[in-house]
Amino acid sequence: MAFTQQQIVESLAGRLIVSVQAYPGEPMRDPRTMAQVAASAARGGAAAVRVQGIADIHAARSAVEVPVIGLWKDGDTGVYITPTYQHAYAVALAGAHVVALDGTRRPRPDGLTLAQTIDRLHHNTHALVMADCGSLDDALAASAAGADLVGTTLAGYTGERPKTNGPDLELLEAMSQADIDVPIIAEGRIHTPPQASAAIAAGAHAVVVGTAITHPTTITSWFVNAVEG
Fold first, then answer.
1. Which domain of life does the UniProt lineage start with (predicted)?
2. What pLDDT, on the 0 to 100 scale, is given for residue 85?
3. What is the reported pTM?
4. End-to-end CA separation in angstroms for the chain
């Protein structure tokens, strides 16, 4: 389904985005399965889905009628979330309405700056760009670099901030009070409805929930630990 950029941003306001991802080697690690999970999330009211991998993006676009936020993880350390322009361009070509990429101030593998990456993506595609940030300074820099959305996705994972138990509401509040003129997306360790509500109250334009909705292995482990002590 086609959306204008303004429609995408407006459709996310005050709403839930569901991240639909499975790790390599897991039973659900299959594009068709991920597309079915994405469709179930959309049926439940998700305003958008966040999907990893080119095949999964293709499958999700055919399965849902809500915006698809796409990314491509290459590795698992450093700058690995859609780390280069070529990764970002491929994500857009696969059908993502929004390309999520590493929005930190760390050097990018292809030598381009974040601003150069975003500018090329805007010039060559119609996709919006979501910058996954780890700190207030990241978010300020990403906004200045031209990102259309900034997220707290990497808070607690880049060494600039401690890893909080639950969402980093302090960072959300700081971002909402700072000179950031693009929507702020709360993402990271949001495991309960009250935490999601608190993220909106802290200034988030929208909230991303992944593990607590779409990762049965982790959810099962929570209950196992509770039952078995």
1. Bacteria
2. 98
3. 0.98
4. 47
